[in-house]
Write a structure and sequence with these properties.
single chain; alpha+beta; globular; 5 strands; GSKIP domain-containing protein; about 130 residues; GSKIP_dom_sf; GSKIP_dom; about 45% helix; copper amine oxidase-like fold
Length: about 130
C-alpha cells in the first residue's frame, strides 16, 4: 500500500467517524463531503467537507496531516448571532488534532450537546454496572 492510499484510507475513516460520532452536535444531515480544491493530483476527494453548526454557521473543513482545519465560515441565515459567527471565524486556518476539539472551540452549542451526550453515556454505564 502506498503512503497516498494509506492517507486516503485514514481520511475516509475519519469522515466516517465524524458522520457517526458528531451528528448530534451539528445540524442534522448537514455533513457533506466536497470535492478537493487541492492542485495536488494525489489529493483524495473526501479530504474536504462541510457541516453546519447548531448556531446556523456553515464550516468548510479540510483534513490535513496536522489534523482538521476550518478554511471557511459562513452564516447559513441572515439572522445569525454575530458572536456565534465570530466564535467560529477566530479558528480559521488553525489546526485541531481532533474533530471534537474543533467543534468544542467553534461551537458553544456543540459543547452543551457534547456534555449532555457524555453525561448520558456515563449514566448508562453506571446503571449497567449496578
Amino acid at each position: 500500500m502506498t503512503p497516498v492510499s494509506e492517507t486516503n484510507k485514514f481520511i475516509e475513516q475519519e469522515l466516517s467517524n465524524v458522520l457517526k460520532e458528531y451528528e448530534y452536535g451539528v445540524i442534522p444531515n448537514s455533513i457533506e463531503i466536497l470535492p478537493t480544491r487541492s492542485l495536488n493530483s494525489d489529493a483524495h476527494q473526501s479530504s474536504i467537507f462541510k457541516l453546519t453548526l447548531l448556531e446556523n454557521v456553515k464550516l468548510i473543513i479540510t483534513i490535513v496531516e496536522e489534523g482538521y482545519i476550518i478554511t471557511e465560515v459562513d452564516p447559513l441565515e441572515t439572522n445569525v448571532n454575530e458572536e456565534d459567527l465570530e466564535c467560529a471565524k477566530k479558528w480559521i486556518n488553525k489546526p485541531f488534532e481532533t474533530m471534537e476539539a474543533l467543534l468544542l472551540a467553534a461551537s458553544p452549542k456543540f459543547g452543551e450537546q457534547f456534555h449532555q451526550a457524555l453525561h448520558a453515556k456515563l449514566s448508562n454505564l453506571q446503571q449497567s454496572q449496578d
